[in-house]
Write a structure and sequence with these properties.
Length: 353
């Protein structure tokens, strides 16, 4: 039976930054045509009521599903508190992916005040901040700010995670960054940069294969050192060996054979996956694929299969590996949401207050 364990939501395509490798908020040569009902940088986004109804149905489908709120930058939405408040009330697992830039800080603080608690925030941090400033641009800016602010957020957020995107030029800084984060009780989620293998790979606008991390002893040594030193990385002992197997970008997720992961675009349409938009799948909105009973419309699997065969040339999407692991052992969701640490941190925050 198809059972979705991880849902990625593009709550918006708007963002206060324009990182060079992001295809979600930037236009670039060869970008596929827009949906008829989507206009980039517009306010054509799901209403909070639509998102909440989707969350309600997902809870019936799988009450232990993990929801990842992406952008763009989710905190540019003034109604984010309604969505997060609902998740808190219904005990829905979630994290909010943010660039954690200084211009976003007051919005994060306001959300905490409005909803009382925020269970999870994931800040995008790249080893690029070890580069010279001339190399980094917005990517450098968000990484420096994110690193500093994550430490501050540990006092207010139950689960603080650093999302680390590594490329071939920043790999040598990975271990040091993860160690520094672990020392500050911040978990790391490691992923490797993807390239746009066709115009339908609209998550990334990087096409230069030089950025891809090759499968080399150097990479394996870095992974082994992270595991041996017991650094705080998502599912490290299981996940890192699997990531190594798919380098440089050769994951075949086989989503057409068993649906365990789903991505919702900003206008409520469903994508083939986080990386690839597709053409057939997005013709239908989420609430037409997910019935009020929590059951999946059979057309979802059929449309995913069509788009997968037409557009997928493999990728490097770590999240798909996570949901596959959970689909085989549902207890592993506790590793993803850090149940034990959330409980300990909640007690700490309560004592502090």
């Amino acid at each position: 039976m198809d059972k979705i364990h991880i849902i990625s939501w593009f709550l918006t395509r708007r963002c206060n930054l324009r990182c060079m490798y992001c295809g979600i908020v930037r236009n670039y040569k060869g970008k596929p045509p827009e949906y008829p009902n989507m206009r980039y940088y517009s306010m054509n986004e799901m209403t909070p009521e639509y998102v909440i109804e989707g969350l309600r149905r997902f809870k019936k489908h799988n009450p232990n599903a993990f929801h990842i709120f992406y952008g763009g930058e989710p905190f540019v939405r003034d109604d984010l508190h309604l969505i997060i408040g609902f998740c808190n009330d219904e005990n829905i697992h979630y994290t909010i992916i943010t660039n954690n830039d200084e211009k976003i800080q007051d919005k994060i603080e306001r959300l905490i005040l409005e909803v009382g608690r925020v269970d999870g925030i994931t800040s995008s941090i790249d080893p690029v901040f070890c580069y010279a400033k001339s190399e980094g641009g917005h990517r450098l800016e968000k990484s420096i700010q994110g690193f500093k602010k994550l430490i501050d957020l540990r006092a207010f957020i139950n689960d603080v995670v650093a999302e680390i995107t590594v490329d071939n030029f920043t790999l040598s800084f990975l271990y040091t960054l993860v160690r520094n984060l672990t020392e500050r009780q911040i978990n790391s989620d490691i992923t490797f940069i993807d390239i746009a293998k066709s115009k339908y790979y609209d998550f990334s606008n990087v096409s230069d294969r030089a950025f891809l991390v090759p499968k080399t002893p150097r990479v394996l040594d870095t992974f082994n050192k992270i595991i041996e030193d017991d650094l705080d990385v998502h599912m490290a002992k299981i996940l890192l060996p699997k990531i190594y197997e798919i380098l440089p970008a050769d994951l075949d997720c086989k989503i057409e054979k068993g649906i365990h992961n789903l991505t919702v675009d900003a206008d409520g349409s469903v994508r083939l996956c986080l990386r690839i938009r597709g053409t057939e799948t997005p013709k239908t909105k989420l609430l037409d694929y997910l019935f009020w009973t929590g059951e999946l419309n059979p057309f979802l699997k059929m449309n995913l299969k069509i788009d997968k065969e037409k557009y997928c040339r493999k990728c490097n999407w770590t999240c798909m590996l996570m949901s596959e692991i959970i689909s085989k052992d549902e207890e592993k969701v506790k590793d993803l949401v850090h149940i034990e640490r959330r409980t300990e941190d909640a007690k700490y925050i309560e004592r502090r207050d």
